[in-house]
Design a protein that fits this description.
Elements (H helix, E strand, L loop, with lengths): L1 H26 L14 H26 L7 H8 L6
């Protein structure tokens, strides 16, 4: 599915690195100046980290919704687990 590939590519190339980098910047905020990132404000880091968290939550909500949008509420989940879709 092309849309699924684009969605996972976005997660791998944008959301995951953003949430990891901002999380590490949060964790080591007091040492950022020594590492050359002294110009980053804590509010900017917090906003970017929160934005990435909302994107991950949106990704989860869309997946659950699309999983229940089949001809039965569990049809797509069954296809995800088994790899086979029952055509009706």
């Amino acid at each position: 599915n092309p849309l699924q590939r684009v969605a996972y590519l976005g997660v791998k190339l944008f959301i995951n690195p953003l949430i990891w980098c901002t999380g590490l910047f949060y964790l080591f905020y007091n040492q950022l100046a020594a590492a050359g990132f002294g110009g980053l404000a804590l509010g900017t880091i917090a906003l970017a980290h929160t934005f990435a968290a909302f994107l991950m939550l949106l990704f989860l909500i869309v997946h659950v919704y699309l999983g229940t949008a089949g001809h039965t509420p569990t049809a797509h989940f069954r296809a995800m687990v088994t790899g086979w879709e029952e055509l009706s």
